[in-house]
Amino acid sequence: MRVLVMMAVLALSGPLMAMAVQPPDDRDILLVVLPPWQDGDAVLDAVDGVVIGPVQAPFAMLVQSAHPRVEVAAYDAGAWWGGSAGVLAAICGVRP
Hints:
Elements: H1 2-21, E1 30-33, H2 40-47, E2 49-51, E3 60-65, H3 70-76, E4 81-84, H4 85-91
Antiparallel strand pairs: 1-3, 1-4, 2-3
Helix pairs in contact: 2-3
C-alpha cells in the first residue's frame, strides 16, 4: 500500500510543480483554489476580478483579472493557490 501511495505522489509531483511555478499571463484565466472557510467574494475584490463560467466549484473558481500581481493578491486574500488555468488545461491534455 505504501508503495502505491509513493508512486502516486511521484507521478503527480511533476505536473503539480509545473503548475505551481508557472506565472499567469495578463490575458490568462486564473484558477483560484480556496479553503472552504474562505469567502470567494473577498478574494475577487482583492484581485479586482470577475468569475468566469456559469458554475463555481466548492473549492475553486476561474477568475479573469487585470491585477498586475494577481497570484500574490489572491494568496494574500486567503486563497491556497492562484495560477494560470491554461497550465492546468495543458497538463490535462486540453489544447487551445
